[in-house]
Design brief:
21 helices, mainly alpha, globular, about 450 residues
Length: about 450
C-alpha cells in the first residue's frame, strides 16, 4: 500500500534532485563531445598549416578512437571498482588537460606537430573512455526504468548541443584568434567542469539533498541507488573480465545491440569529424560559415534526441513491451537518417542543410543505445557492460574517419562517403529488427 502511494506520488512530493544530476551529465557530456569535435572545426586550418592530405587528416581524426576503444574495458572495470564520482572526475580533468596542450603543438615545428597532435588525441581518447559508461551507470542509479529513456536522451542529446553551441563559438575563436586558441579555451572550460563535478555529484544513497520520497521512488522503479557503495550488493561481481565478456558475447541479443551501436556511432563520427570539412570542401563555405551552418542540423539532432527518449518512455507507460518501446524510435530514426544520401543529387546550399538537418534529427531519435544498455546490463558489472558496449560502438571512431578520408582521396568527392554512412544506418535497422530479439536484462 505504502509502496503504491510512493510510486505514484506527485512529482513535487517526490522531489527533483535527479533532474539536477542529469543536467550535470548533460553539461559534462557537451564538453566531452565538443573536445572531440575541435579537430573537425579547425581541420581545414590545421590541414593548411601542417600540409597534410585527407587520408592523413583521417588518421589524426581516428587517433582519439584507437585509445578510446582500448580504454573501454579498463575504464568500465575502474568504474565498478572505484565508483562513478571519482573515476569520472579524473576522466574530465585529464581529457581537458590534454585538450589544452594540443594548442601548443606548433611550438615544436611543423614536422613534429602532426605526431604530437596524434599523440595528444590518443591521450584524450584514453581519458574519455570511462565517460559514457559512467553516464549509463549513473542513469541506472538515479532513474527508475520508466524514466531512463528520457534521462538517457537528455545526456545523449548533449552531443548535438555541443555542436549547436560550441561549433560556432570554436569557429569564431579559430577565425579571430587562431585555431590554437580553441584548444586552450575548451581545455580550460573542461578543467572548471571537473571541479564542478567533484562538488555536485553524489550517488543517490549519499546525496545530502535527496529526500526520502524521491529515494524510495527511484528504488521502487528499479534504480540501483547503492551502485557506488563500497560494500553493496552492487559491488563488482567475482570473476575475470573474460568470464563476464564470455557471457555477454555469447548472447545473441547483446551481439545485435553491439552491431547496432557500431552503425549508429558511424553517423555520430561523420558529424563529429568530416561534416564541417564537407561543408568547406564540397560545398565551398568559409570555415566561419561552416561552423554556423553545422549548428543547424545539430539543433534538429538535439530535438530528435529528446523526442526519441520521450517517445520511447511514452510507449512503455502505455503498456507496450520494452522491446517495442526501445526499437521503434531506433528503426524510425535510422530510416530518417538515410535521407542524407539525397545530398548527392542537389546543389542548393539551403536544401543540403535541410536534408542534413532531417538526417541528423533521425540520428537523434534513434540514439537510444545507452537506454537499452541501462535496461539490459547486470548492476553487478554495469561499468564493464557499458565499457564493452561502448568499445564495439566506437570501433566506428577509427573506421569512419579513415574510410571517409580514403573515399574522398580516391574519388575526389564526398558522394561515396554519404552512401557509406547511409548503408550503416540500414545495417543498424537490420541489427535491431533481426538480430536483437526481445530486450531483457542479462545477469552475470
Amino acid at each position: 500500500m505504502n509502496n503504491t502511494l510512493q510510486t505514484h506520488a506527485p512529482a513535487a512530493v517526490r522531489g527533483r534532485v535527479r533532474y539536477g544530476i542529469v543536467a550535470l551529465l548533460f553539461f559534462v557530456t557537451a564538453i566531452n563531445y565538443a573536445d572531440r569535435a575541435i579537430l573537425a572545426v579547425t581541420g581545414p586550418l590545421i590541414t593548411k598549416d601542417l600540409g597534410i592530405s585527407p587520408v592523413e587528416l583521417g588518421f589524426v581524426f581516428s587517433a582519439f578512437g584507437w585509445s578510446y576503444l582500448v580504454g573501454q574495458i579498463p575504464g568500465g572495470r575502474l568504474l565498478d571498482r572505484y565508483g562513478s564520482k571519482r573515476v569520472y572526475f579524473w576522466s574530465i580533468l585529464l581529457w581537458s588537460a590534454f585538450t589544452l596542450l594540443q594548442g601548443g603543438v606548433m611550438h615544436f615545428g611543423v614536422a613534429a606537430a602532426v605526431y604530437i597532435m596524434f599523440g595528444l588525441r590518443l591521450l584524450v581518447g584514453a581519458a574519455e573512455a570511462p565517460s559514457l559508461p559512467a553516464n549509463a551507470r549513473i542513469v541506472s542509479a538515479w532513474f527508475p526504468t520508466q524514466e531512463r529513456g528520457t534521462a538517457t536522451a537528455i545526456f545523449n542529446s548533449a552531443q548535438y548541443f555541443a555542436t549547436v553551441l560550441f561549433a560556432p563559438l570554436m569557429a569564431w575563436v579559430a577565425h579571430a584568434l587562431g585555431w590554437e586558441s580553441t584548444f586552450y579555451f575548451m581545455g580550460a572550460l573542461g578543467i572548471v567542469g571537473s571541479l564542478l563535478w567533484l562538488a555536485v555529484m553524489h550517488s543517490p544513497d549519499r546525496h545530502p539533498s535527496l529526500g526520502t520520497a524521491e529515494l524510495e521512488y527511484i528504488r521502487e522503479g528499479g534504480g540501483q541507488t547503492d551502485m557506488d557503495a563500497p560494500c553493496s550488493a552492487a559491488a563488482p561481481a567475482a570473476g575475470s573480465a573474460w568470464s563476464h565478456a564470455r557471457v555477454l558475447l555469447g548472447n545473441r541479443m547483446m551481439l545485435g545491440i553491439y552491431l547496432g551501436q557500431y552503425c549508429i556511432s558511424t553517423l555520430t563520427y561523420f558529424f563529429l569529424t568530416w561534416f564541417p570539412v564537407y561543408l568547406v570542401q564540397q560545398r565551398g563555405m568559409s570555415i566561419l560559415n561552416a561552423g554556423l551552418v553545422a549548428s543547424i542540423p545539430a539543433i534538429f539532432g538535439f530535438a530528435g534526441g529528446l523526442l526519441g527518449g520521450v517517445f520511447s518512455d511514452a510507449l512503455l507507460r502505455r503498456g507496450h513491451s520494452l522491446s517495442v518501446a526501445r526499437k521503434t524510435p531506433i528503426v524510425l530514426g535510422m530510416l530518417l537518417s538515410m535521407s542524407m544520401v539525397l545530398c548527392n543529387y542537389v546543389q542548393a546550399e539551403w536544401l543540403v542543410v535541410a536534408i542534413m538537418a532531417l538526417a541528423f534529427m533521425g540520428k537523434g531519435i534513434g540514439a537510444l543505445g545507452w537506454a537499452v544498455m541501462a535496461d539490459t546490463a547486470s548492476p553487478r558489472i554495469a561499468g564493464f557492460s557499458g565499457g564493452l558496449f561502448n568499445m564495439f560502438g566506437n570501433v566506428s571512431s577509427i573506421v569512419t574517419p579513415i574510410a571517409i578520408g580514403t573515399i574522398i582521396q580516391a574519388t575526389g568527392s564526398f558522394n561515396g562517403a554519404l552512401l557509406f554512412i547511409s548503408a550503416n544506418a540500414a545495417l543498424a535497422i537490420f541489427a535491431y529488427l533481426v538480430v536483437v530479439g526481445e530486450i531483457r536484462r542479462v545477469e552475470a
